[in-house]
Description:
Layout (H helix, E strand, L loop, with lengths): L11 H11 L11 H14 L4 H15 L7 H20 L10 H8 L3 H12 L5 H18 L17 H19 L4 H25 L3 H11 L15 H17 L1 H14 L12 H15 L12 H10 L3 H14 L5 H6 L3 H9 L7 H7 L21
Amino acid sequence: xxxxxxxxxxxxxxxxxxxxxxxxxxxxxxxxxxxxxxxxxxxxxxxxxxxxxxxxxxxxxxxxxxxxxxxxxxxxxxxxxxxxxxxxxxxxxxxxxxxxxxxxxxxxxxxxxxxxxxxxxxxxxxxxxxxxxxxxxxxxxxxxxxxxxxxxxxxxxxxxxxxxxxxxxxxxxxxxxxxxxxxxxxxxxxxxxxxxxxxxxxxxxxxxxxxxxxxxxxxxxxxxxxxxxxxxxxxxxxxxxxxxxxxxxxxxxxxxxxxxxxxxxxxxxxxxxxxxxxxxxxxxxxxxxxxxxxxxxxxxxxxxxxxxxxxxxxxxxxxxxxxxxxxxxxxxxxxxxxxxxxxxxxxxxxxxxxxxxxxxxxxxxxxxxxxxxxxxxxxxxxxxxxxxxxxxxxxxxxx
Length: 399
């Protein structure tokens, strides 16, 4: 007996029309119909059987349309983004909804959902709403994920008509060629490499960035090729072998990619930590390839060379993954990261480096010797305060 599937839409053409309103083609120059699409989805919900992907697309799109500082407060905009994003993630990874009970991180890995989404959802739920910059970027990434994992396959073609169906294959081929060119050029003699390494790295990285910009899957393909081809580690690496040459070879290249596509480093960090525990055959302390990936992740997360890029690394998620999947490498990584996090300069350490004169000045409230700026301000009637009054507001001064 044929299986009957009930849908909220009458036929597939209605769903395709809504998809076009949410994701108009690059050549479309008509009116913005996203608000209409959100209204249609809301009507569909009254009928029932609306897939979570469709509802989440409407919620995220509506949050974008709500992003109007002239008519809405910043707090309400952040709250709307946070609510839409949390509902999108929770509906996918909450183990209480369907299937066996598992952690949200484990469900995210199974679904191919970026683990940083789960971390951001936890922050938005249990802490202050994230900044608008973070929320806007995450919402856009969520819509891209929904396209790849639902909307692109609605018509059975797996792609929008305005996108080349062979784009993924051709993009992969082009990125592979550029990476091999980079790898081969870096294998030249040491003297030649020192003279032209930086220029070549930047030149090839610029070409790779252009390819990634022209394809919505470019940065993901780049990451897959780097790891599948063992370009960052070398296929014949021996246990205990130094990785300094590889770090020197790839740092500038990877950092240029990160500057253009910050989520590349987020995805790279997530994939590196997954490699430490996903494959049970490679968790042995004597596995050279796993050691190399461990050293790469440690280098990115703790090296001063990567300091300005480290905010893009999901530190909390990495530590959580290590705690939930204990083995030799994850325990060692946890120790390294926590050791690195504990040596940050604190307020007390900064005060301990003050000279006695500076310390006395700070404690007594005396101001530093007047500068040219002070003299200029004094000419306009401004006078510096010799001693700060630290009374709380509303407390009368004692006589």
